[in-house]
From TrEMBL:
This is Transaldolase. The gene is tal. Its EC number is 2.2.1.2. One of its GO terms (cellular component) is cytoplasm. It is found in: Cytoplasm.
Length: 227
């Protein structure tokens, strides 16, 4: 079970990597748009420098045809590094790209997955990760947890090495359901991840502990008490 950050914001990545067990970073064109017209490859290299070479960095192609997506992938390898996971939408041309990149030995994430049919084809194409869009499926009335669970079941039954990297979350409870359904990893926007720690009941409990301690020892912390 791993948590990745679904953002291209450098400050958020730096801070959350310092505080939380962050396993990597994912991005897509819509996420990059939030940062403005940054020097793209320099920006991705900076993300790499923050997370290091062990944690995965996922970058999505922007072309929509086979040749264009292959050129995009080559540009990422040349300007960032060859360890990057190339995110490829699972459409007709995308499956051909996944197969071709895997023949080259590249890391590939099959993205924009809205159902089991796409996922099963991506598995056979050799994708390293499959990214089902949890919230977007639920918005369409699809039982997203069931989709994730069934994909996990097929992976286990046939022995695929592919991992489920669940994406598209709007609230922490969706993350919980994806993990319980069998997702190996989740990629989460910083604002949604921070909601995990924003529960009023947790803040109230921490404040009650502080008040009880202060009633005994004033403003002193454990470290400030005399032995």
């Amino acid at each position: 079970m791993k948590y990745l950050l679904d953002t291209a914001n450098l400050d958020e990545i730096r801070e959350l990597c310092e505080y939380l067990p962050v396993a990597g970073v994912t991005s897509n064109p819509s996420i990059v748009k939030k940062e403005g017209a940054v020097p793209f490859f320099a920006h991705m290299r900076e993300i790499r420098s923050i997370i290091g070479n062990v944690r995965p960095l996922h970058i999505q192609v922007t072309a929509t045809d086979y040749d264009g997506m292959m050129r995009d992938a080559d540009a990422v390898f040349r300007h960032v590094d060859e360890k990057v996971y190339i995110k490829v939408p699972v459409d007709f041309a995308g499956v051909k790209v996944i197969k071709a990149l895997k023949r080259q030995g590249a890391n590939v994430t099959a993205t924009a997955v809205y159902g089991m049919d796409q996922a099963f084809i991506a598995l056979e194409a050799g994708a390293d990760c499959i990214a089902p869009y949890f919230n977007r499926m639920e918005a369409l009335g699809v039982d997203a947890a069931s989709v994730v669970g069934n994909i996990a079941g097929i992976i286990n039954h046939y022995g695929y090495e592919t991992e489920i990297l669940a994406a598209s979350f709007k609230q922490p409870t969706q993350i919980d359901r994806a993990i319980l359904a069998g997702a190996h990893s989740v990629t989460v926007a910083p604002d949604v991840l921070r909601e995990v720690f924003g529960k009023k009941i947790v803040k109230d409990a921490v404040q009650a502990f502080s008040d009880d301690w202060a009633s005994l020892y004033g403003g002193k912390t454990l470290a400030e008490l005399e032995s």
